[in-house]
Amino acid sequence: GGCRTGMAKMTNAYDLPARKVIHTVGPKYAVKYHTAAENALSHCYRSCLELLIENGLESIAMGCIYTEAKNYPREPAAHVAIRTVRRFLEKQKGKIAGVIFCITSSSDTEIYKRLLPLYFPRDKQEEETAVSKLPADVGDENGETVIDERKIRIRPLPAGAADRTVATAPLDLPLESGLASRSTFKLDSYLDPSFMSLIKDPDLRRKEQWGKSSQAQKRFNYARLLGYGDIGFPPLSAAEEYSLHSRYLAKANSLNLSEIAEMKIIYRGGVDSEGRPVMVVVGAHFLLRCLDLERFVLHVVKEFEPLIQKPYTIVYLHSAASLQPQPDLGFMKRIQQILGRKHQRNLHVGILVVLTM
């Protein structure tokens, strides 16, 4: 029979150099259903590993289940694959002898070489690096994406509710069964106010964000008056930043942005004296009147993605840029927010070049 997305089935290997072959179906990717695609992909890897144990096997070689044909962005998918395997191995110690990631392209090889030490550090130095570079959202105990707003939350009873009594017929339960005591213990632990206050309620957190945004819009915007644009939007958490960047990167990889690239506003310009890659930005080429800003942002994300994974340099050519209308500070801040903290952390040096007569 067939196999549904996220599920896996095992067949004989026949003439292949393996004992068994496991088949699975990866998800199609759409920015709108980013979380669903991540969890479906995680389930693919976990289903394969579960079949491995169920059939008494100890090692597996796994290819990239996500494919270009299904528009899945490579790096976010690699994060899902590696963290799912890591979580599974944590729960099934001693049952699996080896997991091999089979990579067929140089770009995927580079991604896995960079990400594997973050999830499987081999020494103290790699462990310290992983603490600073791992994304904020590394999934739940199975490696699946967690969204706080979708969690079931248990609130304590409103004040005074405990004083209200409900007339019910007494139940004659045998005390020696221990059922009543166990249920009360669990309920008390869930309703413990000190336990519940460890993490702020997602609903309250979102309400606070809306309140800050509303206040920022109502205040007199001096930055906009001075021509800097809207720079008052609230900052994002690391998880929100990662999700925003992933959505833009996935959309950029699915579009043909050649008309933006041909304008040569930004382009890769080799390496500097220390071997760091260089990104060149030409201010005079930024033709604001005939430029689709949303497509330009997608082009920026796509061009910067290979560079911001490690230290890099930016060279900005300002000559003749004042002759063209330039984007405001709010627009530049928004690009910086989409690129994420990795962009700021790995930017080694910025060089401003102004040619004068």
From TrEMBL:
Database matches in PROSITE patterns:
MACRO
Q: Which residues does the UniProt record annotate as the domain Macro?
A: 1-120
Q: What parts of the sequence cross the membrane?
A: none
Q: Which InterPro entries match?
A: CRAL-TRIO_dom, CRAL-TRIO_dom_sf, Macro_dom, Macro_dom-like
Record protein name field = Macro domain-containing protein
This protein's species is Aegilops tauschii subsp. strangulata
